[in-house]
Design brief:
This protein folds into four domains: 129 residues, Roll (Nuclear Transport Factor 2, Chain: A), CATH 3.10.450.100; 99 residues, Penicillin-binding protein 2a (Domain 2), CATH 3.90.1310.10; 73 residues, Penicillin-binding protein 2a, domain 3 (Ribosomal Protein L30, Chain: A, 2-Layer Sandwich); 303 residues, Beta-lactamase, CATH 3.40.710. 34% of the residues lie in helices and 26% in strands. It is built from 20 helices and 27 strands. Strands 8, 9, 10, 11 and 16 form a five-stranded mixed beta sheet that branches. The chain has a five-stranded antiparallel beta sheet with strand order 18-17-27-26-25, with helices on both faces. Helix 10 packs antiparallel against helix 20 and helix 14 crosses helix 19.
Length: 662
């Protein structure tokens, strides 16, 4: 063979190799790009499935092929079908795993993935899904079938959920008395075809409206609901008696009830039927489920509610396939430290005046009462409160829904006990320290301008006990100035560092807006419980427990078997000295709490009247406070508040309650 011919053959062979290599590379690159496109579609579909974003899901589906044995959908119907099925079972927390795509034929891949999901009755595990991904024009799309709802599902299957309701846990006081109870109520309702027609119907509705204290318009609205038929029982309200009325009927129905009613409403709260927002937030709920709407019923709703049981079943005529069964898990009971009898007594003594009563065991921190007034009847809310009843609460200027035991107030002169304790502990004063004060007004010097500290008793010479008995603002202002900002803050801060771990919404106590006492007048005012000082009655009880406990501050608890933190905040001798002085506030005839005196009992107490006014020497609102503690056996410490009143009114109102604590 000639050299030229050999060269040509060699070149031709090389060209063939190059062409073959190029074809192989192109084929490999094409397959790789195709596989990546298929994977992208698979991921987009399963991500939308997991997030229940059904419009996005259908964007990854071959919508030209939405038909099969026993089923046919448009794109819009397919979205609605997915929504309905997974809403029905309460699908949430959907997790995708083991996602694979495998080429199986020309322009066809096999999609496989595993899913788990939480439903209304528990978790569905290891659902193994299988479908095709096909090429549609230039895009890869999932070939949808009903098996992509649930793997066992065919076109003629329907999804059914049957539920067995869990029993809601009950709330008990420290003695086993029920505060939130699973009971029954008398439900009044209408039977439409028994009301008559024309003027007769109008008259019957008017009689019913009058007897049940509702509006005729409200009854008409209830009768127009879409589900109402001529012989349907249409619930209207819970009643206590059952007068015979044409067109009316009564049923005994299960319901949450609150034996203490208004006396513990802000604390216990109430339940109501789940709203659309509740169902969206908590998919495990069903329409008609009771959920906590306020108070501890809301805070501990998940624990109290438990988990419904039941079954998820695919049904096709007489044939059925069970996907999941679960037994109901009843809710857990909640046991409080509250004493129901004391709670009722404390609330009654407020006499519907705006105020609160917080009572605790100083040695343990166990809260015995958390009463707030005015209040509302939580029983009215369980089955649906009437518009007129709700309006009466909502329009009440004294705000019956507010939990006053957790709201912050200037504590007034009750705070003087802490100022005295700190001053004794750091040596600013002794029990023999006497101050000579003249008149009812005082200022350090002219740098205070027109501002002066005032007092109500013109006692020329006072020691610490005298100043507490007379509740002398000037005496304590002078002590604070003598002590100085740094020393006073150092003494105060341990009281403010530790907070109670309670299931209540409550802002932290504050010494001042900035946390400092930068001016002399603010320093002076804080010493007698004014200035920018803010404490809730619960926080007052915790801080003042240091006086009851020989210098140890006990944080309160509300749930039985929980332990509140104990902190040493005062020297024992300083705390005990103040406690002894506070017994004179009761025993001395001139004491501001002398009205509490009970034969055979030693009570330590301090009153306070916090002024709420914009300018000195003007009239303004006042809040009255009373702190009282058992100085013999340290069995109780109580903080009482009545808004828009003086401390004398609180003493008079609370004496029967304090007497009941023995």
């Amino acid at each position: 063979m000639q050299k030229g011919t050999r060269t040509l053959i060699t070149v031709s062979a090389a060209a063939i190799v190059i062409v073959a290599g190029s074809f192989a590379w192109y084929h490999w690159h094409h397959e790789r790009a195709e596989a990546q496109a298929v994977t992208t579609t698979a991921k987009a579909y399963t991500q939308a499935f997991a997030k229940r974003q059904y419009t996005k899901l259908t964007n990854q589906i071959d919508t030209s092929h939405l038909t099969g044995s026993g089923w046919h959908y448009t794109k819009k119907q397919l979205i609605a079908r997915n929504q309905a099925v997974f809403d029905r079972v309460g699908a949430s927390n959907i997790k995708i795993s083991k996602l694979t795509t495998t080429a199986s034929a020309h322009n066809t891949y096999q999609l496989r993935f595993t899913a788990t999901m939480t439903t209304k009755i528990g978790q569905l595990k290891t659902l193994h899904y299988h479908a095709k991904i096909v090429k549609v024009s230039d895009a890869w799309r999932v070939r949808w079938t009903p098996a992509l709802l649930f793997p066992q599902m065919s076109g003629k299957d329907t999804v059914q959920l049957t539920t067995t309701a869990a029993t809601r846990g009950q709330i008990y006081d420290r003695n086993g008395q029920l505060l939130a109870k699973n009971g029954t109520v008398l439900q009044a309702g209408l039977i439409p075809n028994q009301l008559g027609s024309g003027s007769t119907r109008t008259q019957n509705l008017q009689k019913i409206a009058t007897a049940w204290d509702v509006k005729v318009a409200s009854l008409e609205t209830l009768l127009k609901q879409s589900w109402v038929t001529t012989d349907t029982f249409v619930p209207v309200k819970v009643v206590t008696d059952a007068p015979e009325l044409t067109g009316a009927n009564y049923q005994t129905v299960g319901s949450r009830t609150y034996p203490l009613g208004a006396a513990a409403a802000q604390l216990i709260g109430y339940v109501g039927q789940a709203t659309a927002a509740d169902l969206t937030k908590t998919p495990s709920l069903s329409a008609g489920s009771d959920v906590g709407k306020a108070g501890l019923e809301q805070t501990y709703d998940r624990q109290l509610r438990g988990t419904d049981g039941g079954a998820i079943t695919l049904v096709n005529g007489k044939h059925s396939t069970t996907l999941l069964t679960a037994k109901a898990k009843n809710g857990q009971d909640l046991h409080l430290t509250i004493d129901a009898a004391k709670q009722q007594k404390a609330y009654a003594q407020l006499g519907n005046k705006a105020g609160s009563v917080v009572t605790m065991e100083p040695k343990t921190g166990a809260l015995l009462t958390l009463a707030s007034a005015p209040s509302y009847d939580p029983n009215k809310f369980v089955t649906g409160i009437s518009q007129s009843d709700y309006a009466a609460y909502a329009n009440n200027a004294d705000l019956p829904f507010v939990s006053r035991f957790s709201q912050r107030y200037a504590p007034g002169s009750t705070f003087k006990m802490l100022t005295a304790g700190i001053a004794l502990a750091n040596g600013t004063i002794t029990t023999d320290t006497t101050k000579a004060i003249s008149g009812l007004k005082w200022q350090k010097d002219s740098s205070w301008g027109t501002y002066k500290v005032t007092r109500t008793v013109d006692d020329a010479s006072e020691n610490m006990t005298d100043a507490l008995v007379n509740s002398d603002n000037i005496w304590f202002a002078q002590v604070a100035l003598q002590m100085g900002q740094a020393a006073y803050l150092k003494g105060l801060q341990p009281f403010f560092k530790t907070t109670a771990d309670l299931p209540l919404t409550m802002k932290s106590a504050q010494i001042s807006n900035s946390g400092k006492l930068a001016t002399e007048t603010l320093l002076a005012d804080t010493a007698y419980g004014q200035g920018q000082l803010l404490l809730s009655p619960i926080e007052q009880a915790a801080m003042y427990s240091a006086i009851a406990n020989g210098g140890t501050m006990q944080q309160p608890t509300l749930i039985q078997n929980q332990t509140g933190k104990r902190t040493s905040v005062l020297q024992a001798n300083a705390a005990n000295t103040v406690k002894t002085a506070l017994t004179h506030v009761v025993s001395d005839s001139a004491g501001t709490a002398h009205g509490l005196a009970l034969a055979g009992h030693t009570i330590a107490a301090k009153t306070g009247t916090a002024e709420l006014k914009q300018q000195q020497d003007t009239d303004g609102k006042t809040n009255g406070f009373l702190v009282a503690m058992d100085a013999d056996n340290n069995t109780y410490l109580t903080v009482s508040l009545i808004e828009n009143a003086g401390s004398d009114a609180v003493v008079a109102a609370m004496k029967p309650y304090i007497n009941s604590l023995y």
